[in-house]
Amino acid sequence: MKFLNLSRIVSLPGRNVFGLVISGVNKPEIYVALTKLLAKYNVLPVNSLIVSRNGEVEITTFLDFTGSKISPKKLSEELKRIACIKNVEHIRPLSEGLIVDTYHFPLIVSGERACIFRKSVLKGLFRDIKEKFRDAGKVFLYYQGVKVGENVYEDYKKYVKTSREILFLFAEAVKAIGWGVIEILHANFNEKIFLIKLYESIECELCKPANEPCGYFSKGVIAGLLSKLTNTRLEVNEIMCIAKGDPYCLFEAKPGKESY
After folding, report:
1. Domain termination site, one of 47, 81, 105
2. For residue 48, what are the contacts with CB-CB under 8 A and spacing of at least 6?
3. Which of 4, 106, 96, 105 is nearest to 47 (CA)?
4. Contact yes or no for 174/190 (Cβ under 8 A)
5. Phi, psi angles (nearest 5°) of residue 210
6. Number of separate domains in the chain
7. Where does residue 189 rank: exposed (0-12), middle (13-18), buried (19+ CB within 10 A)?
8. pLDDT tens digits, residue range 109-132?
9. Phi/psi of residue 99, each to 5°?
10. 254: β partners
11. Domain of 132: which CATH number?
12. What is the pTM of this model?
């Protein structure tokens, strides 16, 4: 696995960074022309995002002009002369070497508005609430997670049909959004018994070190989703947790009463 830097904020102290948003017709010529111009003027891409829809393309690219003699304005003018490019917008740096993508808002994931929280923010949501409110905070996180799991079921059944497909789509999505890496060890839909590994859970990573399992929100999400998938209220227990030194978090789900 390799990390992905979303680069909504780019910090390169001492470098001349600038952002361009290039829109046009999605044809090979647009990529060839852009690559040739960057090479010609010694402009280095720092990070780029390409989104294509209905024959149109938008290329958002942060560029390093430090070793170049051309200015962002002049490069934009040359880009606009290319037939398949319709427009070029600028994202200006806040200060030398610091640039933020303020062009795009809101963020959208799978057709819904989304928001990115960094680790420093998530600490307040998942660790500090338990320290402040103790058992009440744990219960709150669990039932919050249950509702999220139920909503995940309603959302994912739009994309796949069977309960097994929804479960495995959930496992892949958890990794895609950066929450952790799921491995489904056992999934018996007849007996309604499940065993799920969660590697590198961001919730539990924030709680290190701890003397007990800390994945209350994750446990709730799993309980809410599996209860919907089996049409039975399932009890989920976290029997291993990285917060207390285990190599991964391990959740066991089976029919029973609700618990946190």
Report:
1. 105
2. 59, 60, 61, 62
3. 4
4. no
5. -145, 160
6. 2
7. middle
8. 888 899 998 888 898 888 888 888
9. -140, 140
10. 235
11. 3.30.1380.20
12. 0.85
